[in-house]
Amino acid sequence: MNSVNKTLYIPLCGKSYVSKKGLFLNDKKAEEIWEAEGFSLKGKSESKWLAYYMGVRAAVFDGWLKQQMADAPDAVVIHIGCGMDSRIIRVGTENHKWYDVDFSEVIEERKRYYAESDNYKMIAGDARENKWISDIKETQYAIVVMEGVSMYLTVDEMRNLADSLCTHFENLVLLVDCYTSFAAKMSKRRNPVNDVGVTEVYGIDNPQSYQNGKFTFVKEHTMIPQKYIDELKGFERFVFAKLYAGSFSKKLYRLFEYQKK
Description:
7-stranded mixed sheet; globular; 41% helix; Rossmann fold; single chain; 11 helices; alpha/beta
């Protein structure tokens, strides 16, 4: 795997860690894969604080997706940059078609642990090229999640992706987490992804930077809701709130919703 693909092990480690501790989300598949793979992480990548952040971030995306699926029972779900994530299991497909998308070598690895079904398919594709979208036959409504992906795409690449999705689908909603430009600059020295070889990331300060034609910004979501902070106790709750939920955190990470309707 290249350095970008190796970043998938950082959230996998985090979700396995919090699941074992009974915090934020139940992710037995992450525990299973992490134990089987035994990928070596070092430095900031194995921080428990980062694990807590990864767990909460996943839970926030899960909650948003469940609500969107309930509101749009005929929509397809697209998880871009799925890595080894078990969102398909945590959320469930109900009657929705679900597509997990990632680089071909990631999908090849993923198929060792996940099986396709009538409602669930895995697609090999690069978010920067968008040819993979034609593998999805549905064209009416898509619910799209991009967790931990946008920071590896330039603004132009994100706009091109949005344009391709808007061309293919009549309606869509997207939830995406982003670095700020400050975070992107800081990442050259102080980012856990450096520990797996990534040196170039991108950020935005204005959510309208990704707007493109009919693809428009809807609202900003809270990255770390208080209810998840409250699952921690004492000193851990205090430190985590200061590191990931305070005003400084907002200078680094943002969570934006977009739509085409």
